[in-house]
Specification:
The chain has 13 helices and no strands. The protein is an all-alpha fold. Helix 7 (122-139) packs antiparallel against helix 8 (142-158) and helix 8 (142-158) packs antiparallel against helix 9. The longest helix has 19 residues, at 80-98. It is globular, with a radius of gyration of 19 Å.
Length: 264
Amino acid sequence: MIGTGPHPWRAVLFSALLPVWSTALPHARASLNDPQPAAQPLDTALLAQRLRQVDVIMDVEPDSAFAILHTLPSVTHEPWRSSVRARSYEVVARREHASTQLLSALAYCDSAIERYNAMGDQRSVGRVTHLKGNGLVTAGDFTGASEALEEALAFFTMRDDMVQVAGIRASLGAMHYFQRQFERAWEHYHASLALYQTAQNERGLSRVYGKMGILAAEVEVPNGLERARAYTDTALLLASRMKEREPWAHLHAFEGHRRCEIPQ
């Protein structure tokens, strides 16, 4: 069932992010079906560059990613047309998930996966499968989430993609956290942290430290609140050093701090 279980930190997180994310949702959905201008000579080098930009920023800045896609000229040649279309579905799926439009997000995930599969782009299939798993976690479908996340984990583990594996392990940690399986959550968070440290990926580190702060503040462990404050302070420091916006890390860290102030 959508939104099962009382998870007050999610309400804080999403209520803070919703004003930022909600403004362009109708435009983004409608744009998938907008009539496109007449075809122009295709600059494949420029198109490839723009699609790489979309891949880099879509996780943190889906608005900017969609803006890049929407300003591209009409693309009628394959495989470019399919590639633009698939990314459009993925970007809208990310926006829908961020605004808790979960049924819509999952539908767009399935559409993106279908198109990436048709293109033979298995890496993108794995990436969107991870996103779908996150959506199912938020929806409370932990069986479906586990299947999607484990599928994505196996794919990226076989390809030694350290950053993707780290992100999926963090998602598995969150899934176990919501099921109150705290030991398994710690296991995945620590594995994710180690991978992000090896990769020197500050965005990933900031997110995981924030999640660990929430968990440490909630679980009765020795020095839990002190540990939670240390994790959340580190998350905020890392997030503030990044040029890109990192709302997830900030909100995870702020929620961890808030929980440190709640009488135990």
